[in-house]
Structures are given as structure tokens and as C-alpha cells.
Design brief:
Distance between the termini: 61 Å
Shape: elongated
Order of helices and strands: HEEEEEEEEEHEE
Number of strands: 11
Number of helices: 2
Strand order of the largest sheet: 1-2-11-3-4-9-10
Largest sheet: 7 strands, antiparallel
Helix content: 10-25%
Length: 171
């Protein structure tokens, strides 16, 4: 191989390498962009109070994914919602349009007359709250704390509009 052929060969290798690096970079950036748009930026938050105990302890650090592009939480997701100027960390129990019946013993039913039991909260305590029957409004979610007896949640403040749900807890 002469000197000219060697230089041409090296140029071709360098061009192939550069092209490969560019293609890989474009793929990585595209995938990262899709993931970022889907789950949004992550943010660290801190649990304030006992309303989600024993799932989360007071002062525990959590990671939250901000909601993006009309993303909605699913039933049983733990979300961060703004209510009364503060962030609440609660579990989604009711979705828009759901008819819920919630009993002081911690049982939550979907529909009338105990059709489908959604959950039975552990340690409901001596909740003074009465039986609650509610239809969750459009664009709203019914949120409950896992520490059923010691939680200020949708039983007190009503269903929470999607606009007030900041993100979904990732931990």
C-alpha cells in the first residue's frame, strides 16, 4: 500500500468513526429527550408529618417526577399535591368519575354497596370521620394518606384537581 492509499484509508476510517459517533449521539439525545418529556424532571422532596406512615416516615427524603404533557397519576400512585399553600404527599385512591364509599375502619369501595374493595388501610385507628360517599369530579383525584386516622386528605379538603398535582413519587 502506498502513502496516498494509506492516507485515503485513514481519512475513510476517521470519517466512519465521526459518522458513528454522531449517530450514537443523536440516538442518545433523542431517547433522553423522550424520557424527559414523559416523566419530567426529578425533584427531591421531604415527608412532613405522619400522614403516610408507615409507608414513609417523617423527614424521609423522596424523589418526585414532575407531571409533564398531560400525564395523569394512576390509582395507588403516591403523589405530591398543592393544597392550601402546602405540599401534601398522598395516595391516589379515586380517579375522575369514580364513585367511592369510604368507611371509618379504613376500607374503601368503588361503586355502591361494597361492589369492589379497593383497599383496606392498615391501622385505621379511631378515625372520627363518618362513612363518606363521593363521586370524584372530572379532572380531579381523591387522595388519602396511608396513616388513615391521622391524615388530612380528600376526606377533609375534597378531591384535588389535576392542576394541583405537582408530581408522582418515584421511591
Amino acid at each position: 500500500m502506498n502513502k496516498k492509499n494509506t492516507i485515503e484509508h485513514l481519512k475513510k476510517i476517521n470519517l466512519d468513526t465521526i459518522l458513528t459517533i454522531l449517530i450514537i449521539s443523536c440516538v442518545v439525545i433523542s431517547v433522553g429527550s423522550i424520557i424527559y418529556k414523559k416523566v419530567g424532571p426529578k425533584e427531591n422532596i421531604r415527608v412532613n408529618g405522619m400522614s403516610m406512615y408507615p409507608t414513609y416516615s417523617p423527614d424521609q427524603k423522596l424523589t418526585m417526577n414532575r407531571l409533564k404533557n398531560k400525564q395523569e397519576p394512576k390509582r395507588y400512585d403516591v403523589v405530591v399535591a398543592k393544597a392550601g399553600g402546602i405540599n401534601l404527599i398522598k395516595r391516589v385512591v379515586g380517579l375522575p368519575g369514580d364513585k367511592l364509599t369510604i368507611y371509618p375502619d379504613g376500607s374503601v369501595y368503588l361503586g355502591n354497596e361494597k361492589e369492589v374493595k379497593l383497599t383496606q388501610f392498615q391501622n385505621p385507628g379511631t378515625s372520627t370521620k363518618n362513612v363518606i360517599e363521593v363521586t370524584v369530579p372530572t379532572d380531579c383525584f381523591f387522595l388519602l394518606g396511608d396513616n388513615f386516622a391521622a391524615s388530612r386528605d380528600s376526606r377533609d379538603i375534597g378531591a384535588v384537581n389535576i392542576e394541583n398535582i405537582v408530581g408522582i413519587v418515584a421511591d
